[in-house]
Write a structure and sequence with these properties.
The chain is of the alpha/beta class and 235 residues long. The protein is built from seven helices and nine strands, in the order βαβαββαβαβαβααββ. Strands 3-4-2-5-6-1-7-8-9 form a nine-stranded mixed sheet, with helices on both faces. Helix 4 links the parallel strand 5 and strand 6. Helix 3 runs parallel beside helix 4.
């Protein structure tokens, strides 16, 4: 398995219990992406982490989402990282997140990465808002790379899993969630459950859709300040 070319669209889905490592995995993809990036940060935890790590970003106001992806004003840094923390108590929270997602749908030749850390707050098994639906159906035509994470795969639009190039799964106690993942990737649910039950100490399974192969992966290495982050893929 080769690390993907960041200029080409890659879709990644990560799920598992809280604290197992899925957000850490998504952060590795974020850190290693060299072009424009947008994070929909439902909990606000990612924004805090980026600040603590000294990562420069533009904080998008959910009440005043721009109509275009912000441009860099620095010659030494042509790409922009944006973070949008929605007010989940607002009646417009879902629409606010979906309008922010639409900023990444810019057409060919303008690669960007969208990371939604709580994808279940944006889409459910029964309803997916317009721009999120566009991401799932034809985001690749916009040179978009997409990273989504959630704890309960059963409750989301399963096209998220079916469209993913890589599906990373940490320990998943609920059999409905395991079956949802297995069925979406075309893997035997019983065998998927057996593999998942073996996971301990932040290990995870990684399904490569191109190869049709499921790997058992070791826990991710600790991030180190000043070191160009790794791509979380096996050699």
């Amino acid at each position: 398995m080769k690390p993907p070319d960041p200029r080409k669209s890659t879709y990644v889905f990560a799920s598992g219990k809280k604290g197992e490592g899925k957000s850490y995995y998504c952060r590795a993809w974020f850190d290693s992406y060299p072009f424009d990036r947008l994070v929909i940060d439902v909990t606000g935890d990612i924004r805090d982490d980026l600040r603590n790590d000294g990562v420069e970003f533009t904080d998008l106001d959910p009440m005043a989402i721009p109509t275009r992806f912000p441009s860099s004003l620095r010659e030494d840094q042509p790409y922009v990282t944006c973070v949008m923390v929605p007010d989940m108590g607002s009646p417009t929270a879902l629409d606010d997140m979906d309008r922010a997602i639409g900023l990444c749908l810019r057409g060919k030749g303008r690669p960007s990465q969208l990371w939604v850390d709580e994808w279940g707050a944006v889409t459910t098994a029964n309803k997916t808002p317009p721009n999120a639906r566009r991401v799932l159906h034809h985001g690749r035509h916009h040179d978009l790379s997409f990273v989504a994470a959630c704890p309960r795969p059963k409750d989301i639009d399963t096209l998220t899993i079916a469209q993913a190039d890589l599906v990373a799964t940490w320990r998943t106690p609920n059999h409905y969630d395991r079956d949802t993942i297995a069925n979406a990737i075309g893997y035997d649910p019983g065998e998927f459950t057996r593999e998942n039950n073996q996971l301990r100490d932040h290990r995870y399974t990684l399904f490569d859709a191109t190869e049709g192969q499921l790997y058992i992966m070791p826990a991710l290495p600790r991030r180190r300040a000043g070191i160009n982050p790794y791509m979380p893929l096996p050699a």
